[in-house]
Amino acid sequence: MSVSTEKYTIFLDIDNTLYSASTGISAAMGEKIHDYFVALGLDEAEASALHLKYYTQYGLALRGLILHHDVDPVDFDKKCDGALPLEDLISPNPRLRKLLQDIDRTKANVWALTNAYRPHAERVLRILNLDDQVDGLIFCDYQQPNFACKPDAKYYHDALAKAQVTDVSKCYFVDDNRINVDAARALGWGHVVHFCEAGLVHVEGGKVKEIGSERQVNGDNGVEVIADLEELRRIWPELLYNAPTTVQMEYKPRYAQPFSLEEAKGLDVQTITEVFRDPEIARLQNSLQRLGETQTMLRDYVAATQPNEEVDPEITKAIEENETVMYACLLKRPALPSSVRCSGSQTERISILKMALLDKGIVAGSHYDVPLPSPPVAPAPATTRPAGSVEEDAGVDL
């Protein structure tokens, strides 16, 4: 029996994998896409409903826009992906670059794989200073009619052909979306990993969701689940040089913090966990939790009204105001009520503490995160609830 001499191939998802969901890029993208729908002449409620529907049905909202509204995909990319202030949201991660540098290139090729168009993918890789660490790029070619995207089987088959892979058992793949990971696993890809920052929030199909809330992520069906890409050193040791188990971490916070990463690394585990119990963090968490519970009750009331029945304007106003606070909190905007103004700073502080624990070999679980409520992005309808509203469903992430 002949032994295959084909090298291994590592496929790395880009968005929300090579950078954290905490950057708020998915929320900023959700806003851009929503505005694009509204610019087509739809009202706010219609835009939100169609955004979620197309995303759920077609994998990308853009595919629905092409099919039903004859939009120019290049124009969409320019006004959505191309308009994102990526340089203000992400920056190079020395730890991640070191991880990719430690891959044994005599054994494996490394490809980036994304549902975005090529300009966005190349821009992200360049900003992260990783463009020289990938051997190729798999992307959705918006100029091709009926282009495929994850989790379509055709997308994965096309990726294999482009990377010249014939032995799928030698494929290594990591993605932040479990549906995409399961699709690769079903096609026989040998080593698949779900990157899951459980407890953080991001936007899918224009709707804010808590990561990991839709299904149990416990490594079933042969899928490994990780919260930090550094864990790939443990899962894929056969592809990496004998690099140190810990590498120098550099972190520059955007907000003023009472301690630096180096100072946090000098604390013992018990002290770090005590900091997590800071009353200010607990107050923020409780405030947002109560706001989310109120929002749920208000939306349940609206959902219980009959189609075309008028909704109390005061309830509509309350929903919109609550949503503004929660969504702006996700985007870490400065113009917020005092009750949530510290969200960006606290989220960043928790990230520093989690990195300090990781330096000690401890992967902090989602219970260390400050959870945000999960409201839909779009405001409630102004006067009536439209008939045939879209059911909430799992979407397909970039």
What topology emerges from the helices and strands here?
Blueprint: E1 8-13, H1 25-39, H2 44-58, H3 61-69, H4 73-79, H5 86-89, H6 94-101, E2 108-113, H7 118-127, E3 136-138, H8 153-162, E4 171-175, H9 178-186, E5 191-195, E6 201-204, E7 207-210, E8 224-226, H10 232-235, H11 261-265, H12 269-276, H13 279-304, H14 313-331, H15 343-359
Parallel strand pairs: 1-2, 1-4, 2-3, 4-5, 5-8
Antiparallel strand pairs: 6-7
Protein name: Pyrimidine 5-nucleotidase
Organism: Mycena sanguinolenta
Pfam families: Hydrolase
Q: Would you give an account of this structure?
A:
- It comes from Mycena sanguinolenta.
- Pfam families: Hydrolase (PF00702).
- This is Pyrimidine 5-nucleotidase.
- There is one protein chain.
- With 398 residues, the protein is of the alpha/beta class.
- It has 2 domains: 232 residues, 3-Layer(aba) Sandwich (Rossmann fold), CATH 3.40.50; 108 residues, no CATH class.
- Helix content is 42%, strand content 9%.
- It has 15 helices and 8 strands.
- The strands form 2 sheets. Strands 3-2-1-4-5-8 form a 6-stranded parallel beta sheet, sandwiched between helices. Strands 6-7 form a two-stranded antiparallel ribbon.
- Strand 6 and strand 7 form a beta hairpin.
- The radius of gyration is 22 Å and the shape is globular.
- The relative contact order is 0.16.
- The C terminus is likely disordered.
